[in-house]
Write a structure and sequence with these properties.
Length: 316
C-alpha cells in the first residue's frame, strides 16, 4: 500500500471515530433532556415575590420611614441608601432584622359589583435591614428595591419569606376544554396598573381563601365565545362603498363570509345554537402564589394570546 493510501485510510478512520463520538454525545444529550425537564422550577424568584403586591387589609403604618441622610437634596430613595425610622427599642426593633417596605395605594372594588370592596391595594416596594437601633428611632439600609422608588412616609412591616410554588410538569392546554364547575372569577388588575398582560406578569384575582384557593393552585384564563377584546367599529363595516378590496353594498353580508348568507344570518345562527354551549376562548393559565380572604395574587405561566384585566378565571 502506498503512503498516500495509508494517509487516506487514517483520515477515514479518524473521521469515523469523530462521527461516532458526535453521535454518542448527541445521544447522551437527548437522554439527559427528559431528566432536565423534570427538575422543579420556581414560578418566580424571591425578588419577584417580594415586589408582587397584594389586595387585602391595609398595611399598618405605625412604623414608617421618616428621614434620610440624603433628604436635603433627595426625596426618593433607592437600593443602598440609609433611611431613618420613627421607632426604635420602644417598638422592639433589633439590629439585623428585615422589614418589607410597603405603600397603601387605595381601595379596590369588585369588577362585577362596584359596591363590593375587596380590600386595599398594597404596593410592595423593597426590603430594608436595620443597621442601628436607638431608644425612639432606628437606621436601616435599603437592601432590595422594586420598580419605582421609596419615599418618606412609606410603611414597614416584618419581612416574611413565603413559600414559592414550583411549575408543574408540562401538560397541553385544552382549547375546547369544558368548564370544571369549580370557583370562577376575574382578573381584577395587573401589577403596576398594567391592563395588557403577558407571560410572567403578576395579576390580582377576585377569588381567595374563602373560595377554596390555596398557594400552588392553577386557574384557567378564558373568555366567553364572541367576547374577545377586539373592538367593533360601525358594526364591522369599515370599508367605504366601491373601495378596492371590499365587497359591494349589493352583496354585503354581516361578516363578508358567504354570498349565500343574509344580513340576518348571524341572529338566526345564534337562535339555533346557544352561544354559551359552544367552546369558550382559551387565554392562558395562572398559578396562585398568595391568597387573602377574598383575593389572590397569581402569575401568568402560559398564554395563547394577550390577557387583559377583566378576563375570566376558573379553578382547575
Amino acid at each position: 500500500m502506498s503512503l498516500t493510501s495509508l494517509r487516506l485510510a487514517s483520515v477515514r478512520s479518524l473521521t469515523g471515530l469523530a462521527l461516532t463520538a458526535v453521535v454518542a454525545v448527541s445521544g447522551l444529550a437527548r437522554a439527559q433532556n427528559p431528566a432536565e425537564a423534570t427538575v422543579p422550577r420556581s414560578v418566580m424568584s424571591e425578588a419577584m415575590r417580594v415586589c408582587a403586591g397584594y389586595i387585602g387589609e391595609a398595611a399598618p403604618e405605625d412604623l414608617q420611614i421618616v428621614g434620610s441622610e440624603k433628604e436635603a437634596y433627595v426625596r426618593q430613595f433607592s437600593q443602598g441608601d440609609l433611611v431613618y425610622i420613627n421607632r426604635g427599642r420602644d417598638a422592639n426593633l433589633q439590629t439585623g432584622a428585615e422589614y418589607q417596605i410597603v405603600r397603601n395605594i387605595g381601595p379596590v372594588y369588585d369588577l362585577a359589583d362596584r359596591r363590593r370592596k375587596l380590600g386595599t391595594l398594597v404596593q410592595e416596594l423593597g426590603v430594608l435591614r436595620i443597621t442601628e437601633v436607638r431608644d425612639t428611632s432606628a437606621t436601616g439600609e435599603i437592601t432590595l428595591i422594586c420598580t419605582g422608588t421609596v419615599n418618606l412616609g412609606d410603611a414597614l412591616i416584618p419581612y416574611e419569606r413565603r413559600p414559592i410554588p414550583t411549575v408543574r410538569p408540562y401538560r397541553p392546554l385544552s382549547v375546547v376544554g369544558a368548564p370544571t364547575g369549580r370557583a370562577t372569577g376575574q382578573i381584577l388588575a395587573g401589577q403596576l396598573s398594567r391592563e395588557q398582560l403577558v407571560r410572567n406578569d403578576v395579576v390580582y384575582i377576585n377569588l381567595g381563601a374563602d373560595n377554596g384557593l390555596k398557594v400552588g393552585d392553577y386557574l384557567t384564563v378564558y373568555r366567553p365565545l364572541a367576547s374577545d377584546t377586539v373592538s367593533r367599529f360601525r358594526d364591522d363595516k369599515i370599508g367605504q362603498s366601491r373601495s378596492n378590496g371590499f365587497s359591494s353594498d349589493r352583496f354585503r353580508t354581516r361578516d363578508n363570509s358567504s354570498l349565500a348568507s343574509s344580513q340576518k344570518g348571524y341572529p338566526q345562527v345564534a337562535e339555533r345554537t346557544p352561544r354559551n354551549e359552544l367552546p369558550r376562548t382559551l387565554v392562558g393559565e395562572i398559578v396562585i402564589v398568595r391568597t387573602e380572604a377574598n383575593t389572590a395574587v397569581g402569575v401568568l405561566t402560559r398564554t395563547t394570546r394577550e390577557a387583559v384585566v377583566g378576563d375570566r378565571v376558573e379553578l382547575q
